[in-house]
Each structure stands twice: as C-alpha cells, then as structure tokens.
Design the sequence.
C-alpha cells in the first residue's frame, strides 16, 4: 500500500497519482475532493484533527452524496494531546460521524473493518469471528462510544474508564535506529545564513508564507542583504530555517513568513525527516537551541551536546 499526501491536487493530477500506484489519500478537505479520490479508486480517509478539523464538511460525502463507505476510513492524523483529551481518539471520530448523520454501523466499520481491509489484514483483524484477533469494546450505547469494558486477547483490560491490566515492559532501545548528531565546525559556519540567490539585490526572493498552521504558499519578496546574505535584522515576521542532515551531507535553507513572531531560536528533530530543524532570528539563540556552543565573534567553536 502507498498512502498519498495529495493536498490540493486537481482531478487530472489525481489521475496520474492513482495510475502511479498510490492507493490512498487522507488530505482532502472538501466532500468534492473526497469524492474525486473515490471515483479514481483511491481508498479515501476522512480526517478530523487539531490541525485539520474537517469532518463536518467532508462527511457530506456520505450524508448528502450517499457515497458507499466500503472504501472510506477515518483518521485523527496525529492530533495534539489536548485534542484527544477533549474530543477523544477513534471513539471521538465515530461519535462525531454519528452526530453528523452517519449510521452507527457505518461509522464503526470506517474505524475497524475498512482499515483492516485496506491494510489487507481483514482475515486477522477488523472483525469478531473465529480465527480473528480482536479487541472487543462493550459500549453502553451508540451515542457516546466510550466503552464500559475493553477486552484484549481474551482478557478484560479496562472497566468503567479505568485500566486494570499492567502496562507491558518495553525495551525502547530496540527502536533506536538513528545515529546521534555529530556536527563539525567547518560544516556549521554561518549555517543559518541564507545566501542571496541573485546578483541583483533588487530581485525578489522566494519565501515560504504560512497562510494557516498547515497551508503554505510561495511568496516573492524583496529583502535587504549584507555581504551577499539575506539580512532579517529589521524584518518583522520573517525567520531563518535550516534543515540539517545528521551526517552533514546536506543542509536546506530558506525564509519563513508568519511561522512565528519574534522567535529567537528553536531546534527540533520532531519533523517528518527526523533531521535537525533550526528556526529563528538570533544566531546565538539558534545555536543554543540546537546544542551548538562556543560562539566567538559571530563564528562558532562547535560541538553537539
């Protein structure tokens, strides 16, 4: 299976995506976009999360267009913990779908049997039958979808919202597959600086403009430069980002607009690449955030903590 991220794709582009072997997509934000994906044979995932609370719109695919739900799934797509606390996880998706007019059985199938079928595991999971492995949830009603009893592998593990089974011991070290960062001084010199891409300082520079928390667009801007590098000293709302490969094979730089206001420095490997992403306006703050120490006269005597 290949899960596609085809946000904003036209119907014609989706044709090519489907023909290339992509089998599913969860990026639609309107019922029409979801319907297009179904028409092209893609498994289509209805999303509702802290970043994209879209279910109220895309559920119209079922409630108004009467689409068959056999190839429809549901996902929360990495929600913030506070969203799960307030809205629930898969139980919250099922509950909201029912509130918006989907039948309880269809909603439950989109969270159980349909995903198992998509993963080609419906002979093993997704239903309750001989030879299947299933977690069984005993629901008080088909409104709240918060189970009274949870059974896993034949044993009651939760009752009345309380965990009654011990948590398993997990050796987390077995999942460590990436080597630690080990930066070299020569690689890190002026790392945050974005070289002006044109000889003409009046030429516009491509900037990543945040239209919302999750939607970006290219925006060409004329920016000041010093010694051939972009200078954001007096520019408000603009930041330097640098994505650094842990073995110093490459670094990708750019300019961000409306990501944050007056952010001195931020560094994290919590991104889709798991490489080091450093963002900010202040060199010392960016170095401190990324664990790079020993700044002297604007240059770096560097090591990684």
Sequence:
């Amino acid at each position: 299976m290949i899960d596609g991220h085809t946000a904003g794709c036209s119907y014609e582009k989706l044709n090519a995506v489907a023909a290339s072997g992509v089998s599913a997509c969860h990026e639609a934000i309107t019922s029409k976009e979801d319907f297009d994906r179904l028409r092209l044979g893609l498994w289509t995932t209805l999303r509702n999360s802290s970043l994209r609370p879209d279910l109220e719109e895309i559920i119209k695919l079922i409630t108004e267009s009467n689409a068959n739900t056999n190839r429809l799934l549901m996902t929360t797509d990495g929600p913030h913990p506070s969203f799960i606390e307030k809205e629930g996880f898969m139980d919250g998706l099922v509950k909201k779908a029912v509130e918006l007019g989907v039948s309880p059985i269809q909603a439950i199938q989109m969270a159980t049997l349909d995903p198992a079928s998509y993963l080609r595991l419906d002979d093993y999971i997704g239903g309750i039958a001989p030879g299947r492995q299933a977690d069984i949830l005993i629901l008080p009603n088909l409104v709240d979808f918060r189970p009274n009893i949870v059974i896993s592998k034949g044993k009651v593990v939760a009752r009345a919202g309380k965990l009654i089974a011990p948590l398993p011991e997990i050796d987390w070290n077995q999942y460590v597959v990436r080597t630690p960062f080990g930066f070299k001084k020569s690689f890190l010199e002026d790392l945050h600086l974005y070289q002006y891409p044109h000889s003409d300082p009046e030429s516009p520079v491509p900037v990543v403009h945040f239209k919302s928390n999750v939607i970006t667009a290219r925006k060409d801007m004329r920016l000041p430069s010093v010694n051939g590098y972009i200078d954001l000293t007096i520019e408000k709302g603009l930041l330097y980002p640098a994505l650094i490969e842990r073995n110093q094979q490459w670094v990708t730089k750019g300019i961000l607009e409306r990501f944050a206001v007056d952010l001195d420095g931020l560094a994290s490997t919590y991104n889709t690449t798991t490489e080091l992403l450093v963002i900010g306006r202040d060199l010392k703050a960016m170095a401190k955030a990324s664990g790079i120490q020993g700044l002297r006269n604007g240059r770096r005597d560097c090591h990684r903590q």
